[in-house]
Design goal:
The complex is a heterodimer of chains A (116) and B (112). Helix content of chain A is 0%, strand content 53%. Chain A is mainly β and 116 residues long. In chain A, the strands form 2 sheets. In chain A, strands 2, 4, 5, 6, 9, 10 and 11 form a 7-stranded mixed beta sheet that branches. A 4-stranded antiparallel beta sheet of chain A has the order 1-3-8-7, with no helix packed on it. The N and C termini of chain A lie far apart (37 Å). Chain B is mainly β and 112 residues long. In chain B, strand 7 and strand 8 form a beta hairpin. The chains are: A mainly beta (116), B mainly beta (112).
Chain lengths: 116, 112
C-alpha cells in the first residue's frame, strides 16, 4: 500500500508556542490530505481537508486560525497548532486517499502533542 | 444518530479464539467498507477493503458486508496476542469520496 509519513511522532511544547506537524506521501502524489484528532479511547475526528494549492476546508467547530494547514506541494501537507494550550494536547493523525481513485485511506504514524 | 455505530468494547478473548467485530450504519448509500487496525499511539493501518455486499478473506481475517441489514463484520480466526489493538470500521459512498466515516473503534485484547 501507499506510504504516508508523519513527523514528528511526538512533541512537547510550552503553552503559547506554535508547533508544526508534517505529513508526506512518500510514493504517490496526494492532492488531498486529511487531518484528524484523536482523544484517548475515542475515534478519529476529522479536523480539516487539506487541498493542494488551495485553502483547507475545516470541519465545523475547528478554529482555522488556530490550526493552520498548508498544502504547498503534491506530497506535503503541514498542520501548525498556533499558540498551543494544554487543551490542544492530543494525538494528531494525517491521511491521504489511495491513488488511482480507490477509496482506501492511508494514515501517517500520528503525532502525540503535549502542551505543558 | 451517528452514521456509523461500533461497540467500543473492550473485548478480551483467549489466544486461539475466533473474534467477531461489528459495525452498523444508517446511510444505505455506503458502498465501500474498510477495516483498520490501530496499535496504541500509532496511526491506523488498513486491514481489509470490500466493495458492496459479500465476503472477503485474507489469511486469518474475513470481512463480511450485509447491505440489506446495514451491518459489517470482521472475523479473526486463531487470534494471537499480536492482534491486540483497536479495530476501526470505515465506509464511504464513492470510491473517490473525500471523507471516510469511521466507527468509534473496538479495543481488542487477546490473552496468551
Amino acid at each position: 500500500g501507499a506510504v504516508v509519513s508523519q513527523h514528528p511522532s511526538w512533541v512537547i511544547c510550552k503553552s503559547g508556542t506554535s508547533v508544526k506537524i508534517e505529513c508526506r506521501s512518500l510514493d504517490f502524489q496526494a492532492t488531498t490530505m486529511f487531518w484528524y484528532r484523536q482523544f484517548p479511547k475515542q475515534s478519529l475526528m476529522l479536523m480539516a481537508t487539506s487541498n493542494e494549492g488551495s485553502k483547507a476546508t475545516y470541519e465545523q467547530g475547528v478554529e482555522k486560525d488556530k490550526f493552520l494547514i498548508n498544502h504547498a506541494s503534491l506530497t506535503l501537507s503541514t498542520l501548525t497548532v498556533t499558540s498551543a494550550h494544554p487543551e490542544d494536547s492530543s494525538f494528531y493523525i494525517c491521511s491521504a486517499r489511495s491513488p488511482q481513485g480507490k477509496p482506501e485511506a492511508f494514515f501517517g504514524q500520528g503525532t502525540r502533542l503535549t502542551v505543558v | 444518530q451517528k452514521e456509523v455505530e461500533q461497540d467500543p468494547g473492550p473485548l478480551s478473548v483467549p489466544e486461539g479464539a475466533i473474534v467477531s467485530l461489528n459495525c452498523t450504519y444508517s446511510n444505505s448509500a455506503f458502498q465501500y467498507f474498510m477495516w483498520y487496525r490501530q496499535y496504541s499511539r500509532k496511526g491506523p493501518e488498513l486491514l481489509m477493503y470490500t466493495y458492496s455486499s459479500g465476503n472477503k478473506e485474507d489469511g486469518r481475517f474475513t470481512a463480511q458486508v450485509d447491505k440489506s441489514s446495514k451491518y459489517i463484520s470482521l472475523f479473526i480466526r486463531d487470534s494471537q496476542p499480536s492482534d491486540s489493538a483497536t479495530y476501526l470500521c470505515a465506509m464511504s459512498v464513492y470510491a473517490g469520496a473525500n471523507n471516510l466515516f469511521f466507527g468509534t473503534g473496538t479495543r481488542l485484547t487477546v490473552i496468551p
